Amino acid sequence: MVFNLFKSKSKLGIDVGTAAIKIIELEKEGGRFGLKNYGLFELKGQPVEAGTGSAGLPGQGILKLPDQEIIWGIKEIIKKSKMSSTDAVASLPSFSTFSTIIEMPYLSEEDLAQAIPFEARKYVPIPLSEVVLDWSIIDIIGQDADAGGTSSVPAGTQVAGKGAKPTTVKVFLAAVPKDETARYQRITKGAGLNLRALELENTALARALLGNDLSTTAVINIGGRSTSILVVDKGYEQISHNYEVGGFEIAKSIARSLNVSLEKAEELKRKLGLKQTDENIVNEAMGSLLDMMVFEAKKTITNYESSRNQKISRVLLAGGLVNMPNFVEYFKQKLGRETTVANSFARIVYPPTLNPIVQELANTFSVAVGLAMREI
After folding, report:
1. Stretch 270-288: mean pLDDT
2. Which candidate, 281, 291, 282, 300, places its Cα nearest to that of 330?
């Protein structure tokens, strides 16, 4: 699963998940991103099409492996895919980070920088001394003194004229445990890489899937360990909900139901999926878990719309499980909303030879793509 096209400087997006390490190498040229290389290190410890390796046991989860095993996996991908860049942006999984949107009185950025740590204590569930705190202004709300109303303008826009004056700001607040950031620094250094940035998984995902689209969108990202359901508006995550069922839990259910190994269950999941055929023996084993996944997504979307009085314009599906036969049709029918498969490769130049598998790649590498697209 390796592709090599260009030979000039580029950047790596490294997504260390629970079921796989995914790395993509992109190069920006003429305002567009071009695909250089990609590679995958699966849970069993074997990079795709490599046939070698000896990392984690099934079910262990890559994030639970010792640092040296993860370093080995990253090096294997880079070596076998002939990646040339040493600059990397890595993702932090949503279940190990905290983020929220808070509203504060309008202040200068300097005053906000001093005030936010005090405000953050109300929201961050662990002591601030144990986290790295980051924030950005995402909206400025102005009060129209003449009309007595309010107006909202994008961050960075001057509020002036007609008696309008800024009153409050919306701030996106993120907190990451210091031991997590230190671990990623150790891992990337051990792999011989220059870690240029760490980024929240959901932030990278929104960048890859939405680009400059500011419409209100629900993104359902189905990973190996969990399903992340987030609502993005004006390019920023508004709310997110993690449901602790993902592709691995579904494979375990198949294995238990059919009394087969996890490896065989994964094979059946990928081959048969939700095909409506008499010989499909995995449908029943997956049904209740998938229905709960849909229920959690529907609940999150409905709660957002009712609490914000704001309609979600579309629902996008991402993650490796989306590649499973008939999954999208099943999810769309159960959710009862217009639902489409996200395409993280929509703004990437890639060779036509990849057309037969490009959607599968886009589903699998969504977070890694967003990381490699980040401007440093």
Report:
1. 80
2. 291
- Which tokens hold the place of 346? 């929509």
Per residue in 214-243, pLDDT tens?
889 999 998 877 888 999 988 888 888 888
The domain in which residue 157 lies consists of 98-177
Query: Does residue 347 belong to any structural domain of this protein?
Result: no
Domain count, the chain: 3
CA angle 193, 22, 314 (to 5 degrees): 125
Mean pLDDT of 292-321: 92
CATH classification at residue 70: 3.30.420.40
Q: Give me 317's structure tokens.
A: 């599906």
Q: Which residues pair with 340 in a beta bridge?
A: 316
The backbone torsions φ and ψ at residue 129, rounded to the nearest 5 degrees and listed phi first, read -65, -15
Residue 255 lies in a domain: yes
Q: Does residue 358 fall inside a structural domain?
A: no
Residue 130 CB neighbour total at 10 angstroms: 12
- Phi-psi category of 127—alpha, beta or left, where left has phi over 0 and alpha has psi -120 to 50? beta
Specify the 3-state DSSP secondary structure of 191: coil
Alpha-carbon gap, residue 337 to 354, rounded angstroms: 30
Shared domain for 59 and 108, answered yes or no, is no
